Known about the structure:
Bound molecules: flavin mononucleotide
Shape: globular
Helix content: 25-40%
CATH superfamily: NADH Oxidase
CATH class: Alpha Beta
Number of helices: 5
Number of strands: 4
Amino acid sequence: MNPILARRSIRRFAPRPLEEEDLSALLAAALAAPSAHNQRPWHFVVSTRKDRLEEIPAFHPYSSMMRTAAAAVLVCGEPASKDDDFLPQDLAAATENLLVAATARGIGSCWLGVYPKESLIEGCRRWAHLPQTVIPFALVALGWPEETKAPHPEEPDPSRIHRETWER
Ligand SMILES: Cc1cc2nc3c(=O)[nH]c(=O)nc-3n(C[C@H](O)[C@H](O)[C@H](O)COP(=O)(O)O)c2cc1C
C-alpha cells in the first residue's frame, strides 16, 4: 500500500529494538526532503536508550508512547541567518518524510509537536543539550507497532478542494 496513504500515528510499540539499518534508511528519507534555497538546515538527535526515552514525558505532556518506543528522533534546525523564515516548513518536510519512510518499512511512528511552544523547546534543549543556535522542531516516536489503524479515506473531501479560485 502507498505508505503516504497508509501512515497513521502509532502510540503502542512492541518491546523490540530497531536495526541501525532501519534508522539509517529513515534518516536518509528525512535528508531527502526539499528545503527553501536548498539550505538543508536540519539536524537529527537520535535516541535509542530506554532511560533517555523515559525522560521525555517529564517535559512533553503528550508523549507517553515514548515509554514503549524503540527510538526517538528530535528533528532540529539551525537557521542559516536571522531571516531564515522557511525553517519550520523545511523541518516539517523532513519530519513527514521520516514518518512515511517508517510506514514503508512497517515501523510505527508518531509526530510530537515541539516548535513553537516555548516550554517544549526548552525541555528539548535541555534533554538533548542543544546549543542556543539550534531550534528543536519535533520529536518522532518510532518502534514496531503493537496496534493497527485503518488508513484515512482516500477520496478527498470535495468541500476542501477549490478549483482555480476559492469559489470553485
Ligand atoms: C504538528 C503536530 C503535532 C503533533 N503532536 C502530537 C503530540 O504531541 N502527541 C501525539 O500523541 N500526537 C501528536 N501528533 C499526531 C496527531 O495527533 C495525529 O497526526 C492526528 O491525530 C491524525 O492522526 P494520524 O497521524 O493517525 O493520521 C501531532 C501531529 C502534528 C502534525
